[in-house]
TrEMBL record, chain A:
Entry protein name: Leucine/isoleucine/valine transporter subunit membrane component of ABC superfamily
Subcellular location: Cell membrane
Gene3D superfamilies with a match to the protein in the record: ABC transporter involved in vitamin B12 uptake, BtuC
Mode of membrane association: Multi-pass membrane protein
An example Gene Ontology biological process: L-isoleucine import across plasma membrane
Any single Pfam family the record assigns to this protein: BPD_transp_2
GO MF annotations in UniProt: L-isoleucine transmembrane transporter activity; L-leucine transmembrane transporter activity; L-phenylalanine transmembrane transporter activity; L-valine transmembrane transporter activity
UniProt organism field: Nostocoides australiense Ben110
Classification via InterPro entries: ABC_BtuC-like, ABC_transp_permease, BCAA_transport_permease
CC terms in the record's Gene Ontology section: plasma membrane
Similarity annotation: Belongs to the binding-protein-dependent transport system permease family. LivHM subfamily.
TM region(s), chain numbering: 12-35, 42-59, 65-87, 99-120, 159-178, 207-228, 234-252, 259-277, 297-316
Keywords linked to the UniProt accession: Amino-acid transport, Cell inner membrane, Cell membrane, Membrane, Transmembrane, Transmembrane helix, Transport
Automatic annotation (TrEMBL), chain B:
Pfam families for the chain: Peripla_BP_6 (PF13458)
Annotated protein name in UniProt: Leucine/isoleucine/valine transporter subunit periplasmic-binding component of ABC superfamily (LivJ)
Organism: Nostocoides australiense Ben110
Similarity section: Belongs to the leucine-binding protein family.
CDD domains found in the cross-reference section: PBP1_ABC_LIVBP-like
Region described as Disordered: 25-44
TrEMBL record, chain C:
Intracellular or extracellular location(s): Cell membrane
The keyword Transmembrane helix is assigned to this record: yes
One example GO MF annotation: branched-chain amino acid transmembrane transporter activity
Keywords from the named record: Cell membrane, Membrane, Transmembrane, Transmembrane helix
Name of this chain's protein: ABC-type branched-chain amino acid transport system, permease component (LivM)
Source organism phylogeny: Bacteria, Bacillati, Actinomycetota, Actinomycetes, Micrococcales
Annotated coiled-coil segments of the chain: none
UniProtKB/TrEMBL annotation, chain D:
Swiss-Prot/TrEMBL GO biological process terms: D-alanine transmembrane transport; L-alanine transport; L-isoleucine import across plasma membrane; L-valine import across plasma membrane
MF terms in GO: ATP binding; ATP hydrolysis activity; L-isoleucine transmembrane transporter activity; L-phenylalanine transmembrane transporter activity; L-valine transmembrane transporter activity
A cellular-component GO term for this protein: plasma membrane
Organism annotation: Nostocoides australiense Ben110
One Pfam family named in its UniProt record: BCA_ABC_TP_C
Gene name of this polypeptide: livG
Full protein name: Leucine/isoleucine/valine transporter subunit ATP-binding component of ABC superfamily
Residue intervals passing through the bilayer: none
Length: 322, 412, 568, 280
């Protein structure tokens, strides 16, 4: 039972992180039918943005009030990157052959990783550590430190609570934004029918930028949460996380924002339980369980969903991209 | 090249160069020879021999690699200053292996293609060494590793019937076969009877854990959990969750600090408050940085006595500092320095009457096997497999955010 | 390389002066190479000696020679050739390019020796020559040209040109690969690019393509002979041959990928897994101490098994194409690629059966030994020593020859047409009776088969197989080679593979920035030239001059058509 | 243009009706609650040109897709030479039914000749191995395909354009190329979806001549069109579909004179967008 509860906690923490990143995939896909492969890198840049903010302004401090400022720093970095890449790389390709945006996305992804790796310590006027190796992430009072033990055998990390709380907060914020603001309703309109939306006087280009920005902001939060959880950041952290989050987005039904959140949580839980329980199977099968194989199962799940239920769990805006 | 800015100097040189061009003889550097080595003119009586370095000069493990490179450089400079090998000038040829086997093999191929290379110090990683060995061996170039601890590198894949795979391969550090058991004894003797092991599945980590486990169980301890991690991963929830219910008293980790640091941090923040112990791969200040404030009490073994505990070691560190390298000598600096000096010592015999570097290669292999001198990490000599005969190890402990010597002992 | 064009009136006024200026400029450039360029004999392969040109001096002389040739074709003894080639455009491109080259050279000297004060008269003379050429070429009037279609072919001459061209490539490659100095290496590339641009602008390559059309077999044969002779130019050194073998393996795999991406239009982001499966089969069935399969059949059999295993994987990875296409397919293949890598990583006996030895891979794979020929030993042929990698180079050359044959022949068969039809419009292809699913599967299987073949050799050449050789980035590199060179072409992929593998090896200072530039390159290529450096024949036809009029006609038609269509 | 042949231009010297090629009985197609086609009977004989007309959204394309095997009808049967074909485009083509598309769907980056050769795909069987080895079968089939494709290009009047890229061809030529490509599958029945859409009167006339010429080869032809005049000049029989139901089914004269047809055309375009969606 403790094991089950512990895995539930682990799964929800992991899932919240996936969900926060997955929203970025889903929002952008819903509007421009583009798999923004570089979104994982936006998440990574968020983490580095927070780190940079900390190193610049608060080095050595651990007070809680620093955290919101770090998140803002992360968002500035992420949103800036996402908007820039939309403007410079994706927008000119909006009517290009279908392979072009995806290949571009791979290019951006590699570029951003390398950019951070090579130049993080060369930011003028700072003495940031080199990003070629892992960099320790700052510890903040209240959200890091001693874990909670609600019962024997179950541990809840403070950073985990922070992650789940941020997901809840973001989900509410996102719901409000999409349904209650003019921009959000514009987003809905464009995702349903861009041409009509354009005719109705909605600035589609602007909506697309907003979609990128919203996704990036949530990815930035995820970046901070990840940094606090594993207490270090590195330039490669976006690749696998991005791929998993994409799986989550597809799982929930790509283009569907609630779907991304549900998909993220489901994937996180699935991963945690698969890791725990497949490892306990009798031997010929048990060998294929445990943490070594969890990514394999996650990717297998991705393939199965894409092939047999591309609309995902909650159904999605499916557009034949053939 | 000194900077010449005065026009007058230029004018003088103009005349000089016109005079020179009138002679019209070329120094021989623009022939079709493609080897990197012919760039330096073989002027005067001194001939050139190169000592290569293959180590990660970029990437996660660059701190260790640069320490190796600089230490070898120091040894070469000192040899040239003292004219250790009359008639020969030594040069450094450093290649980056990015801690990747493929890149390492390319680097080795490049060095093997260089007619002036007589020996190579490297590699850092055992996995890279596996691919570098055959390339250097086919050119009969000696390789002395300051850091490879994989047993199979000198004893072959079959542990029961050790057979040396490459006659050209030597190392100045002890192997996992000694380091693992040493750690096992230390833990057992300090009263810890249940441990968990984790490794990163790489040759180094796996070998270390295997040797540790054998010894620990032989002593009467129990390994309550044996897990692995994927070094590409950042989160070790799953592993920690799997270990925690077994409540071990310590965790022995086989791998390097980029993973060990976060693992130590994460397991403690998840309530698994036991010391993490590892091999020389985690013995680096970066480990403490990554593991954070909860790393106090974590342990590491490293080969040899602490460099700063012996007189020769202190001297090395001072000279290293005086030479003004921008990176510290790191964990393997002393071994790299000794490795380079072992090659230089061998060259004293092998190059003495040699006409060219290529002719001297076999002689160097033979001479290196017989080398014996006092290095900065202890006595440097090799057994019939190419392993160092020194078996002194040290346990270090994180205390107040720094590695402090806990115990130095000889392994018997 | 386009400066703003001059007003026509100005050009006409001074048209007489342009040609002599350009000729003198070219001659100066040619002569400058014979003078000393720098005081410092220790830099750039010693360019301080007169009448003994080296590196940059030599390059300047080549550019000068091209200039003299073009100028004399414009007016003078060779003027009849000027009826065919656009010498004016060629000279203009050459002028701008030479200026660029000379400035680059001066910067190189200044940066290597510490200041422009180290530049000798030769360098300044070259600068003067390039300037004269640049200015003069601006005033050279264009001439009325004849179309090559009307040219009378002289087969002997044409074959001689092919042979000379190939010889130039061989010597160029041998020369440039011998340079370790990055300045010289880049200088050579700049020179080659300038010469190439000038000749291209003059229409030389249009003519070459006509020639190539007529003598396709000669061209192919010549290309292979050159490739075959390459190791003999390396003077026994194996360093370049090591890179060359890597280029060949990479290119062979990329050509296989080109079937899937370039012909059938299916994006595969996990392609490296096929190379990997071939390599792992090769490793597991080798005599390596840690090989996990006891059966050691002859290598030919291993090759076939490796290829078949890869092809089977190809079928599995291809099977989702029944239901998935486009971006989703790309993600599915990416996931498959990762699953492959992780499986190879895990199957070490701890997690799953012991097949691959986990992250350590299978090291110590012995060299190939075919029919008593030991690939690990150097061999001496015609008095030239060929090292280990040269041996592998030859077998890989055979392999890539086979792969090119398969690719081109399939491309020109009903199967190839079916693939392209699927790429162009899958539903229409289906409605025309094309077995789309079967063909897509076949594409994956054939591509994977070829990659598997290459993989088995790679295992021996590398002496090890390990999971970190088969990461996603490698798949991205393969894709980049295809995209960069040109989808659906062989030559393009060869060039793409060479660029992506050779440049980082040669420009070590650049290797740190290799991936950064690689990412940037992908983005820029997609934006600027999505069809790649060498467009495929089919795509090239789009730009074919004969079609230009027609294209306009079509546009006009569409304007007319648009009206009723909109009305409907 | 070479295709104009004065003898068939008047279009009245029609050959005898042959055997029944296509027989659709009570074809019904539902999409969810929407009945796109409702109990339509239809048949085509060898050597006959049959027209299919109707206002936008009348279900023409849906019906067409039922005939060509793209859709399996919800109820009713479509028989080709007395046999029900599996709903697979490939099997349908193989059996001898070929089609063109309303919005031209050529393989833009292939030459005209290659486009037509793709049509030969289902009549050839060379596999990968013989293609790579250039085996005798490959040589035979390749030569046969090539000459047949060139023959067909000549037939539709594009003999000189064989090396042009399809995308670079004029609009009218693209339509004819599509027909040549369909003919390359050796069909017994060819279905043309709006073959004169966007054409000027001269081109329309040429298209009509071409269709007659195809009919004279003994093929059955089904034409969907908006252009009434064109249909009534061309066809032997005409089916008028309105809101998925067969309104009139008879000779051009009968259809033309039926008042309901006129009414349907004036007042019946409510379901405008449905057709495009189904097409896609």
């Amino acid at each position: 039972m403790e094991i089950f509860l512990q895995q539930l906690v682990n799964g929800l923490t992991l899932g919240s992180l996936y969900a926060l990143i997955a929203v970025g995939y889903t929002v952008v896909y819903g509007i421009v039918q583009l798999i923004n492969f570089a979104h994982g890198e936006v998440f990574m840049i968020g983490a580095f943005g927070a780190l940079a903010t900390y190193l610049l302004l608060f080095q050595g401090q651990t007070a809680l009030w620093i955290l919101p400022i770090m998140i803002i720093g992360a968002m500035i970095a992420s949103v800036g990157t996402a908007v820039l890449m939309e403007r410079v790389a994706y927008r000119p390709l909006r009517n290009a052959p279908r392979l072009a945006p995806l290949i571009t996305a791979i290019g951006i992804s590699v570029f951003l990783q390398e950019f951070v790796r090579l130049f993080f310590d060369k930011v003028p006027g700072t003495d940031f550590p080199s990003a070629k190796a892992k960099i320790p992430f700052p510890q903040i009072d209240v959200v890091t430190g001693r874990a909670f033990h609600p019962m024997e055998g179950v541990t809840i990390q403070r950073a985990a609570i922070f992650t789940v709380a941020m997901l809840l907060l973001s989900a509410v914020g996102l719901w409000w934004f999409v349904n209650k603001t003019k921009l959000g309703r514009g987003m809905q309109a464009v995702s349903q029918d861009p041409d009509t939306a354009r005719l109705m006087g909605i600035n589609v280009d602007r909506i697309i930028v907003v979609a990128f920005a919203v996704g990036a902001a949530l990815a930035a939060i995820a970046g901070v949460a990840q940094g606090l959880q594993i207490t270090n950041v590195n330039f490669k952290m976006g690749f696998i996380a991005g791929l998993k989050a994409f799986t989550a987005a597809v799982l929930g039904g790509i283009g569907n924002i609630q779907g991304a959140v549900v998909g993220g949580l489901v994937l996180g839980l699935a991963e945690a339980f698969i890791t725990q329980y497949t490892g306990m199977l009798p031997d010929p099968f048990g060998q294929f369980g445990g943490s070594s194989w969890k990514d394999v199962w996650a990717f297998a799940l991705l393939i199965v969903i894409l092939v047999f239920r591309p609309q995902g769990l909650l159904g999605a805006k499916v557009v034949d991209r053939a | 090249m000194p900077k010449r800015s005065a026009v007058s100097v230029g004018a003088t040189l103009l005349v000089a160069s016109l005079a020179l061009s009138a002679c019209g003889s070329r120094g021989g550097s623009d022939t079709s020879s493609s080897a990197a080595g012919s760039g330096a003119s073989a002027g005067g009586a001194t001939k050139t021999a190169k000592i290569g370095v293959i180590a990660p000069l970029s990437g996660d493990l660059a701190a260790l690699g640069l320490g190796i490179q600089n230490s070898v450089d120091l040894a070469i400079k000192q040899a040239n200053e003292t004219n250790a090998i009359p008639g020969w000038k030594l040069e450094l040829a450093a290649e980056d292996d990015q801690a990747t086997a493929d890149v390492g093999k390319n680097a080795a191929t490049k060095l093997a293609g260089d007619k002036d290379v007589i020996g190579v110090v490297g590699t850092l990683n055992s996995s890279v060494a596996l691919q570098v060995q055959p390339v250097l061996s086919s050119a009969n170039i000696v390789q002395v590793s300051p850091a490879n601890t994989g047993v199979s590198l000198t004893k072959g894949e079959d542990a029961a019937n050790p057979a040396r795979p490459f006659k050209t391969y030597f190392r100045t550090c002890t192997t996992d076969a000694i380091q693992g058991p040493f750690a096992a004894r230390f833990l057992f003797e300090s009263g810890i009877k249940e441990v968990a092991t984790v490794h990163d599945k790489k040759a180094y980590g796996q070998g270390l854990v295997q040797a540790f486990t054998e010894e620990f169980e032989k002593l009467g301890g129990t390994v309550v959990a044996a897990e692995t991690i994927n070094p590409d991963e950042d989160k070790y929830d799953a592993v920690v969750s799997a270990i925690k219910p077994k409540s071990p008293k310590a965790l022995y980790y086989g791998g390097e600090y980029p993973n060990a640091g976060p693992l130590s941090q994460q397991m403690k923040s998840q309530g698994l408050n036991i010391p993490l112990m590892g091999g020389d791969g985690i013995f680096d200040p970066k480990f403490i940085e990554l593991a954070g404030s909860t790393s106090d009490g974590d342990l590491a073994t490293s080969v040899g006595a602490p460099t700063d505990s012996t007189d020769s070691g202190k001297k090395f560190l001072e000279e290293y500092k005086a030479a003004g390298y921008s990176d510290p000598s790191a964990a393997y600096g002393g071994y790299a320095y000794d490795a380079a000096n072992s090659i230089i010592n061998a060259l004293k015999t092998s190059l003495a009457n040699a006409a060219s570097v290529e002719d001297a290669r076999q002689a160097t292999v033979d001479a290196l096997g017989k080398v014996s001198f006092d290095g900065v990490t202890g006595k440097v000599a090799f057994d019939e497999f190419g392993d160092t005969t020194t078996k002194i190890l040290t346990v270090y402990k994180v205390t107040g955010g720094e590695w402090k010597t806990e115990k130095t002992d000889e392994f018997k | 390389m386009n400066l703003p064009t001059l007003p026509d009136t100005l050009r006409e006024q001074h048209s007489g002066k342009g040609w002599p200026l350009a000729l003198v400029g070219s001659l100066l450039l040619l002569v400058s190479g014979l003078l000393s360029w720098s005081f410092d004999p220790s830099i750039l392969g010693d360019i301080s000696i007169a009448f003994w040109p080296a590196s940059l001096q030599l390059f300047a002389m080549i550019l000068g020679a091209v200039g003299v040739l073009l100028a004399l074709m414009h007016r003078g003894p060779l003027h009849r050739l000027g009826d065919w080639f656009d010498t004016a455009l060629g000279l203009r491109a050459l002028g701008t390019g030479s200026l660029l080259f000379v400035v680059f050279s001066l910067v190189a000297i200044a940066s290597e020796a510490g200041g422009l004060v180290n530049v000798n008269p030769g360098g300044w003379l070259a600068l003067a020559g390039a300037l004269l050429l640049t200015v003069g070429a601006r005033f050279v009037p264009q001439r009325q040209l004849n179309s090559f279609a009307k040219a009378k072919a002289n087969p002997v001459l044409e074959i001689v040109v092919i042979v000379l061209g190939m010889a130039a490539i061989l010597f160029g490659a041998a020369y440039v690969l011998g340079r370790d100095d990055p300045w010289i290496f880049v200088g050579f590339l700049v020179m080659a690019a300038v010469a190439f641009m000038a000749l291209a602008r003059a229409g030389f390559f249009t003519w070459m393509s006509h020639v190539a059309q007529r003598h396709r077999h000669v061209l192919t044969l010549a290309a292979f002979v050159v490739a075959f002779l390459f190791p003999f130019t390396q003077d026994g050194s194996d360093a370049n041959m090591s890179i060359a073998t890597q280029v060949l393996i990479f290119a062979a795999t990329a050509i296989g990928l080109n079937i899937v991406v370039g012909l059938a239009g299916l994006l595969d982001l996990g392609y490296i897994a096929f190379l990997g499966s071939g390599a792992y089969v090769g490793a597991m069935m080798s005599n390596a101490a840690s090989a996990t399969i006891g059966w050691k059949p002859p290598f030919i059999v291993v090759m076939l098994i490796g290829a078949c295993v890869a092809a089977t994987l190809g079928l599995i990875i291809g099977s989702p194409t029944l239901r998935v296409s486009g971006d989703y397919l790309a993600i599915v293949t990416l996931a498959f690629g990762e699953i492959f890598r992780l499986s190879m990583f895990n199957l070490d006996g701890n997690n799953g059966p012991d097949l691959t030895n986990g992250p350590n891979g299978i090291p110590g794979i012995p060299d190939l030994n075919l029919f008593g020929f030991d690939f690990g030993k150097p061999h001496t042929v015609f008095g030239i020593q060929l090292g280990r990698f040269s041996n592998y180079y030859f077998i890989l050359l055979l392999l890539i020859g086979f792969i090119i044959l398969v690719f081109t022949r399939l491309n020109n068969s009903r199967i190839g047409r079916g693939w392209v039809a699927i790429r162009e419009d899958e539903r229409a292809a289906e409605a025309m009776g094309v077995n789309t699913f079967g063909l897509k599967l076949l594409g994956f299987a054939v591509g994977a088969f070829l990659a598997g073949l290459a993989g088995t050799i790679k295992a021996h050449q590398d002496t090890a197989a390990s999971p970190d050789q088969y990461i996603f980035l490698e798949s991205a590199f393969l894709l980049a080679a295809v995209v960069l060179g040109g989808m659906g072409t062989v030559a393009g992929v060869l060039i793409g593979a060479t660029i992506l593998k050779l440049l980082p090896e040669k420009l070590r200072f650049f290797s740190e920035y290799r991936l950064l530039l690689f990412g940037l390159l992908l983005v820029i290529m997609m934006r600027v030239r999505p069809e790649g450096l060498i467009a495929s024949k089919r795509r090239q036809l789009e730009f074919h001059e004969d079609d230009e009029e027609l294209a306009q006609e079509v546009q006009a038609d569409h304007l007319i058509d648009a009206a009723p269509e909109a009305a409907r | 243009m070479t295709v104009i042949d004065t003898e068939v231009q008047d279009g009245r010297a029609r050959p005898q009706r042959g055997a029944k090629v296509l027989d659709a009985e009570q074809v019904t197609m539902r999409f969810g609650g929407l009945v796109a086609v409702n109990k339509v009977d239809f048949d085509v004989h060898e050597g006959e040109i049959v027209g299919l007309i109707g206002p936008n959204g009348a279900g023409k394309t849906t019906f067409f897709n039922c005939l060509t095997g793209m859709y399996k009808p919800t109820s009713g049967t479509v028989k080709f030479y007395g046999e029900v074909l599996p709903p697979k485009p490939r099997a349908v083509v193989k059996a001898g039914m070929a089609r063109t598309f309303q919005n031209i769907r050529l393989f833009g980056n292939m030459t005209a000749l290659e486009n037509v050769m793709v049509g030969r795909y289902c009549r050839t069987t060379s596999g990968a191995i013989t293609s790579v080895l250039h085996g005798p079968k490959y040589r035979r089939e390749e030569a046969e395909s090539r000459s047949r494709a060139q023959e067909l290009l000549d037939f539709v009047g594009l003999g000189k354009s064989s090396e042009l890229l399809a995308r670079n061809m004029p609009y009218g030529d693209q339509r004819r190329l599509e027909i040549a490509r369909a003919l390359a599958t050796d069909p017994k029945l060819i279905l043309l979806d709006e073959p004169t859409a966007g054409m000027n009167p001269l081109e329309t006339q040429q298209a009509m001549d071409l269709i007659f010429k195809i009919r004279d080869q003994g093929l059955a032809v089904v034409v969907i069109e908006h252009d009434m005049r064109f249909i009534f000049q061309l066809c032997d029989r005409v089916l008028c579909l309105v809101r998925g139901e067969a309104l009139v089914w008879g000779t051009p004269g009968e259809v033309q004179s039926d008042p309901r047809v006129v009414e349907a055309y004036i007042g019946g375009s409510e379901l405008e967008d449905d057709e495009d969606e189904v097409q896609a």
